[in-house]
Amino acid sequence: MNKRIDRRSFLKRSSGLLAAASLPLSLIEIAFGKGSTDNFTFAYLSDSHITHIKGNKFVHNWDRGLIRAVAEANLMDPKPDFVFYGGDIAQLGKPEEIDHGLEILSGLTPNVHYVMGEHDYYVDLGEYWKKRLGPDYYGFDHKGVHFIVLNSILTYEAWMHGKWDSGMQRMLQMARLDNPQGSPFMVGDRQREWLKKDLEKVSRETPIVVFSHSPLQKIYKGWNFWTEDAEQIQALLKPFSKVTVIYGHVHQIQYNQIGNISFNSAMATAWPWPYPSTYKQTDSLLPKLTVEMNRADPFFERDATGWQFINIHSGNVELHYLLPNNRNRIVAFDAEAGAPVDAKHQKMAKRTAAQTHY
Ligand SMILES: [Fe+2]
Ligand SMILES: [Fe+2]
User: What end-to-end distance do the CA atoms of the chain give, in Å?
Assistant: First the structure.
């Protein structure tokens, strides 16, 4: 694919599909413009939470979200070079759930890169997931972009190897919101050491896209919208001119800018989380939410799940959220604001950005 696909024609070509599709996956276009040699696309699916009931029975709704996403990803035009899966394939990390989720994902034509979620991890500390999928942190280059995958959902060793009667007890503790017995997520020393070495090979001008499950910023600790060593990772990424972090886990639209790093979340294929009652715990405040995401409609199982086109222009990300039964949203990097803003509500978002210290 040597031709430059400009955004307008890309969207025009895709518009029929966009109108028809209602699926929680992301299609990502890398488009560098001047001087670029390659444009490409990839898709992003996340947070399917495949839930085993018993025998061969699984929660139907969550299955359907992933099945539809896979079907649509295979129909994308232009065809994505690969797919990212953003974590939480399983609800409780059971081998049945991981196997069932991977069986559905095996229907994808492109190659898939996986990110570890806490729901995949805490029952057996990632053993089965790694047996099926390999390493939980890695990097690779693709057509001028350096991609990094981190396992951001680790926690303190003492908590992981603590007083648990069983792995499932530990999993259930980590799955709860507002749990005083829980523990914050982190990337940890070993991966940060690896990241430091990995980045030594990358030029400062190379666009970097980092995938993590939890946000590599501190948003809301009670729900683990939080990574304990976020600042240390941000410091490692600081020398690079274009850095984007794309994360799952939060099942809602978030965007933020901290220094050189743009942060963007993706929607889940399973269900939406509501916004936490406050984001005030964070030191680096997210932009004030201008339009709240619609709440789930219990009579429409795909409500407030969604999928995104993500374009990267000169290393900056533009996320096109396609939300079934809701108005579509665009969150794009705005050079003037120096941050991602909500293009659908551009004026309001710009006003907010002007009032907010990033
Ligand atoms: Fe999730
Ligand atoms: Fe998660």
Answer: 37
